[in-house]
Amino acid sequence: MKTIFLVLFSLLLILFASCIDAQSCNPSGKLRGKKPPRGQCVNDPDCCQPGKLYDTYTCSPPVTKQTKAIMTINNFEKGGDGGGPSECDNKYHSNETPIVALSTGWYNKGRRCFNYVNIHYKGKSVKAKVVDECDTTMGCDDVHGYQPPCRNNIVDGSKAVWEALGVPKSDWGEADITWSDA
Q1: Listed residue (133, 99, 103) closest to 116, CA to CA
Q2: Among 121, 87, 119, 84, which residue's Cα sits nearest to residue 104?
Q3: Measured between alpha carbons, how far is 135 from 102 in angstroms, rounded to an integer?
Q4: Fewer beta carbons below 10 Å: N end or C end of the chain?
Q5: Distance (Å, rounded) from C-alpha 132 to C-alpha 91?
Q6: Three-state SS for 156?
Q7: Comparing C-alpha atoms, which of 61, 70, 68 is closest to residue 21?
Q8: pTM
Q9: What would the mean pLDDT of 110-120 be, rounded to a whole number?
């Protein structure tokens, strides 16, 4: 009887923990897209669509030794599709440097600013510095380059990151990666 109780109790704990984990990163709200002013959206295919509802998040999946993510490409230079200056230092950065923006939850209120992360893609890896947040709570405005809020599992890398990982230019845009704190 004691064994059955322990097994059931263990199963309940596992179920409870998995529910908390699954619930811990559900969308926290919606943001309605609005039409960008003429000439204001830098990367046209990624512009907010008027009336479309975009999920917003205040979290990201848990960080592990091999956190699964989607890598996107960002232009961290002034006038680029990254919108305003980087959150960590309120400056623009060269795309020739391996740097990234992390989704809001992973950015962790700036606690990862200037720390390095290891990014892995098809057997190659690169060490990149965190300089920005890929905002999952806001978007469709000037500060965010009139792009939708980021998804909660994004590592937004500079051109240097994509090149260091050997991703063919024809595949630039989105790539399945894993990452970890360096």
Answers
A1: 99
A2: 87
A3: 8
A4: N
A5: 10
A6: strand
A7: 61
A8: 0.83
A9: 98
Determine the residue type at 98: P
Residue with tokens 């260091």: 164
Choice among 12-16, 90-94, 106-110, 114-118 with the minimum mean pLDDT: 12-16
Check if the beta carbon of residue 155 is closer than 8 Å to that of residue 129.
Answer: no
CA 25 to CA 152: how far, in whole Å? 8
Tell me which DSSP letter residue 141 carries: S
Q: What per-residue confidence (pLDDT) applies to 143?
A: 82
Distance CA 46, CA 90 (A): 23
- Residue length of the chain: 182
Dist. CA 151–CA 148, nearest whole Å: 9
What proportion of the chain, given as a percentage, has pLDDT over 90?
A: 72
Instruction: Label residue 13 by pLDDT band (50, 70, 90).
Output: very low
